[in-house]
Amino acid sequence: MANFSIYNTGERAPSDVTIPLVAHYTNNHNSPRSVHNSIILPLSIAGAATNPEKTATHKITIETNKPVVNLLDLFSELNCEAEGGQSSCIAFKCVSGEVITVLAAKNSR
C-alpha cells in the first residue's frame, strides 16, 4: 500500500474532483496486471463555504415543483451553517477568488 496526500498548491480551482488511479504490477506467475480505480475529492479542495452574495458573478438556481431542497444536505461536505438547520441559499468561494451562489427555489407554475 502506498500513502499519498493531495492538496491544492495554487490559486486555480481544479478542473475535476475525480482522480483516476492506476497500479501496474506483476503477479506470482510473472503475469503483468493493472488495477484501475478512482477517488472523488471533497469540494473543499477547490474552495470553501462563504456568505451568499446577491452580486455574485456565478449563480446557480435549482428550481423544482416539489418542496425546496435543503442545500445544507445537498452540499454537506462544505460544513455550511444556517439558522434552524435549513438553507435554500449557500455560497462557495473558489481558491481562485470567484464566489458561486447556489439558490434553491420552488417553481411558481
Instruction: Report strand order across the widest sheet.
Output: 3-5-6-4
N-to-C SSE series? EEEEHEE
Number of helical stretches of at least 4 residues = 1
Overall strand count: 6
Q: Which word captures the global form? A: elongated
User: How would you characterize the largest beta sheet?
Assistant: 4 strands, mixed
Report the sheet-strand fraction. 35-45%
Q: List low-confidence stretches.
A: none
Kindly, what is the distance between the CA atoms of the first and last residues, rounded to a whole number of angstroms? 55 Å
Quick synopsis:
With about 110 residues, the protein is mostly beta strands. The termini are far apart.
List keywords for this structure.
1 helix, two-stranded antiparallel sheet, mainly beta, 4-stranded mixed sheet, 6 strands
